[in-house]
Amino acid sequence: MTRGSAEILFPAALLAACAALWPHAAAFAPDSRVFPAVLLALLTAMSTALIVRAWLRPPADAATPFFEHFGRHALALAAIGAYLAVLPVAGFFTASAALALALPFALGYREPARLALATAIFLVAVWVVFVWLFQRPLPREFFLAH
Amino acid sequence: MFDALLHALPAVLSFKSALAMVVGMAAGLVVGALPGLTVTMGIAVLIPLTFGLDPLVALGVMAGMYNGGSYGGAITAILLRIPGTPASVATVLDGYPMAQRGEAGHALQVAVVSGTIGSVISAIALILLAPPLAQVSLLFGPAEYFWMAMFGLATVSMLLGDDALKGLVSVIIGLLIGTVGQDQLNGSERFVFDILDLVDGLNVVVLLTGLYALPPVLLMAERAARRGMDKALLRFDRARSVLREWRRYIRIWVRSSAIGIVIGILPGAGGSMTSLIAYNDAKRIAKDPDSYGKGNPEGVAASECGNGADNAASMIPALTLAVPGSGVAAVILAGLLVHGMRPGPQLFRDNPDVVYGFMLQMLVTSLMLAVMGGLAATRLFGQVLRLPPLMLTPFIVLLTVVGVYAVNASVFDLWAMLAIGLLGYVMDRLDYPTAPAVLGLLLGPMAESQVRLALTISRGDATILVASWVSWIMIAATLFVFLSPVWHAWRARAAR
Amino acid sequence: MTGLNRRRLIAAAGAALAGSALPRGARAQAAYPTRPISLIVAFAAGGGTDVAARSIARYMEKHLGGGASIGVVNRPGAGGEIGWTAVAQAAPDGYTIGFINAPAIAAMTVEKQTRFTMDSFDPIGNLVYDAGILAVHKDSAFQNVADMVAFARANPGALTVGTTGGSGNSEHLALLQLQRLADIRINHAPFGGTAPMRTALLGRHIPVGAFNLSEGVEQVREGQLRVLGVMAEQRQSIAPDLPTFREQGIDLVAGSSRGIVGPRGIPAPILARLREAVRASMHDPEYVQAAQRASIPLRYMDGTEYQAFITRMTAEMRAIWQATPWR
User: Which of B121, B207, B469, C152 would disulfide-bridge C159, Cβ 3.0–4.6 Å?
Assistant: First the structure.
């Protein structure tokens, strides 16, 4: 995808979002409706203007690719998505250790010893501050569940 | 009053009180630096543990935590582009570009010195002017708060960037996200889609981490750089010491401190907008406003100074009227109550030692910030940047996840953060500024609810909006701020 | 256990600061509790309920004895619904208990489809009952309830009263009751928080404010505000000189409470231990003294009394909803 097409696609996505939200906003109580309705109308108008502008007057860098490296972008995004999906099941520290070790490796980092050390230090620090000191809840480890 | 101050001084400087302030500040730096942990939460956890202790020891911990926490946010904002609270967004704007350029040490130094100056001036205002300043907060009713929000929204004109249309789209996105949740005035639900996690609206931490922390993660992954930042870049550069360049910053410090104090004493306005407004003000008077947002240390100075100045000032209505100006002030009030201090005018009469002691502790901890903040930030946290970005990528993700989860313990929020992260990534790549969206989310709900509240009180009579001189001042300020970029552009054209 | 380690560390630090160690329960009892108990708070850390929970937790640990550990877990969101649902749906084994606020929680079960009812809970004990008040600025023309009611009768709908929550908050519900009892119409202005409402009242932006007695008692003592009436059966011990509505001919009783419940079905011996721990804490002189200094209106109700209170509140909310739905 090029930057030029992204300049049209993003406002188009905003337009679609406005269209999807409009029926909801129209159903709000009278007092609650005014403000969101005005915002949706403004966003619709502005998105249209952005599309028209990008169409008529493409930016100077329209031909440059939108992503710097699509493959690695998709990889990172998929890894984060998988991490969030596994998190509630496997527990925070299990899932986090997996992500912290696997993602850099998949992206081409080849110093496992340093990576493991940094991950261990980081996770211990998180445990000390969040769990031990301030008792913040984190998704429970699968092997501790009862 | 000076008698009372002198009388309180020995207790403040006693070993126990000093230790309490140091412990509080260390804890404050940690909770401030980490997203999802807040000073409000830290103090709440501490209050029950201070039951048996001397009030000044408990208050020393709180004062240290307050001042340490408000600076702590700058550390992760500058180094990792994770603004833990809205107060750090303006610091991100110039601090992160500076760090990327290899000036992390300098950016942190500007932040700590400016934060110290702001909080010292604020603490002095608290000591000298508390009772008279408290009266100012009583002038603000719903109509006046509405104009306050409009004034904040008008400063967006300074944040729009090169392409005003894209900046406005960003504001509207923020305002729309702000409408999600239960309507305060009639209890009806808007854009909730029967999802329980959305009834209270989207937490601002979700928006901040998504919008600011995730996009660089994706970019780092794409670039896959294997080398971290050179150690030398993190050192303080003595030749470029902020204090030697004081002439450059003095105007910003004075103005940002004044802004922080005024906004700080308004209950409900909240410290979150202070730093953005101080930032916009500095940009407005700058000779080279275009360099803001690209790594100008003046931006960091304005944001952190305004942020620091908010702290002690928000204690003014809390101590004198028992009306807390911020969430932190509210928990400190709770702490005072637990120790049998009753906030209000009688506090100054019945417990002068404690109240003036606490004010002095706010001042002392402000000064301590210069030392402890500087050490912690660069010696400890700064080293993070020496990790190869490839290794840092998952760590930032983990940190944002812990932070967001710590707020509501909600898995839904994590997915919302990822979705907003993608939105932020696209906006970054297409040069849509993201700061206007934050301002919209913060001030939109305030503007809407206050104007509707004002009209409810007046039973639909719109003249309530212009009934007081405070409203007129706010209207004039709003117009002035909104029109000043237009005026500058016009003058620049005329000069050509 | 983690909570214990942390507590020991902080207790040691506290002892070093204070020069005295905290008293710990000496009685060692078997079987329960063998692991930390979660005390769910349906609001964010730092709020009034949260501070109350963290305070009582320490005393409940002491009175449960045997090194019991109670960790406060904040589950904020949806006006309390998320946390309260979590309590209702937890395993009834005595390891998850929670704070509820009546009548807010009862009102919620009446106004919307919640995943719990008031029968989903086993009451353990009530801690706080804060009566509602109507207050005016010291320079207001209203000297008492009769003045205000006379004004409202003469100018239907013109009397603006500010409340501290959103629409449907406990003060709003009290105002709806007042409208019915006094046959007046009130213009309700929900401020969404105590601080903004009190500032607006002190700054004379609204003529009358409705909030809880403990939140206004200081300003009343200092003469900045005047209380028209307290919404209680009798005068309250933290402010015995303030007249009630009942004395002034309007039988308005309203307020908000905070208490501890567990999910329904906790085994009787464990429930008894928890109830006893709350009872002992509520009679612990150290706790009572701290609460009194902080002007917290403690009102202990044992399990049975608390259950009756909840049942009565729920019926009341249902009646108000049928007469005047608030949203």
Answer: C152
Task: List the domain range (segments joined by +) for residue A15.
Answer: 3-56
8 A C-beta contact, residue B357 and residue B12: yes
Best residue in C173, C205, C221, C288 for a mutation probing chain B (most B CBs within 10 Å): C205
* Contact between chains at A134 and B45 (C-beta distance less than 8 A): yes
Q: Is the CB of C18 less than 8 angstroms away from the CB of B338?
A: no
Q: How far from B86 is each of B67, B92, B209, CA to CA, in Å?
A: 16, 10, 10
- How far are the Cα atoms of A102, C6, C117, C129 from residue C108, in angstroms, in the given order? 46, 37, 9, 19
Q: In terms of Cα–Cα distance, which of C51, C25, C103 is closest to C273? A: C25
In a domain, A19, yes or no: yes
Contacts of residue C295 in chain B, CB cutoff 8 Å?
337, 342
d(CA B188, CA C286): 44
User: Bigger pLDDT: A130 or C8?
Assistant: A130
What pLDDT digit, counting tens, does each position of B337-382 carry?
767 677 776 677 777 888 888 989 999 999 888 888 877 766 777 7
Tokens of B381: 């946290």
Question: Which chains contact B through at least 3 pairs of Cβ atoms less than 8 Å apart?
Answer: A, C
Shared-domain flag, residues A77 and A116: yes
Per-residue model confidence as pLDDT tens digits over B173-193: 999 999 998 888 887 889 988
Please indicate, yes or no, if residue A139 is contained in any of the structural domains. no
Across the A:C interface, residue pairs with CB atoms under 8 Å apart total 12
The answer on A123 and A77 residing in a single domain is: yes
In a domain, A24, yes or no: yes
Domain extent at residue B411: 2-495
Residues A47 and A90 in one domain: no
Whole-prediction pTM: 0.83
Residue B402 with chain A: CB contacts under 8 Å = 92, 126, 130, 136, 138
ipTM computed for the complex? 0.95
List chain A pLDDT tens, one digit each, 146 residues.
898 899 999 999 999 999 999 999 999 988 899 999 999 999 999 999 999 999 998 888 888 899 989 999 999 999 999 999 999 999 999 999 999 999 999 988 888 898 999 999 989 988 887 887 777 778 888 887 65
Q: Give residue limits of the domains in chain C.
A: 34-129+256-323, 130-255
Interface test with B, best of A1, A2, A3, A10 (most B CBs within 10 A): A10
What are the pLDDT digits (tens) for B100-124?
888 888 888 899 999 999 999 999 9
Per the structure, how many domains does chain A have? 2
Q: Are C189 and C209 in contact (CB under 8 A)?
A: no
**What's domain C34-129+256-323's architecture?**
3-Layer(aba) Sandwich (3.40)
Subunit contact C6:A137, Cβ cutoff 8 A: no
Contact between chains at A132 and C71 (C-beta distance less than 8 A) = no
CB within 8 Å of A23: residues ≥ 6 apart: none
Q: Which pLDDT band, with edges at 50, 70 and 90, does B212 fall under? A: confident
The confidence score (pLDDT) of residue C3 equals 39
B331 touches chain C (CB under 8 A): yes
Structural domains of chain B, count:
1
Q: How confident is the model at residue C300 (pLDDT cuts 50, 70, 90)?
A: very high
Q: Do both A74 and A27 map to the same domain?
A: no
- Give the pLDDT band of residue C264 (cuts 50, 70, 90): very high
C-chain residues within 8 Å CB-CB of A132?
2, 5-6
Instruction: Say if C34-129+256-323 and C130-255 have the same CATH topology.
Output: yes
Instruction: List chain B residues with CB under 8 Å of C17.
Output: 16, 19-20, 53-54, 57
Cβ B107 vs Cβ B95: under 8 Å: yes
Mutual orientation of helices C48-64 and C285-293 as an angle, nearest 10°? 170
**Domain C130-255: top CATH class:** alpha beta
Question: Residue C221, Cβ neighbours under 10 Å: how many?
Answer: 15
Å between B140 CA and nearest CA of chain C: 7
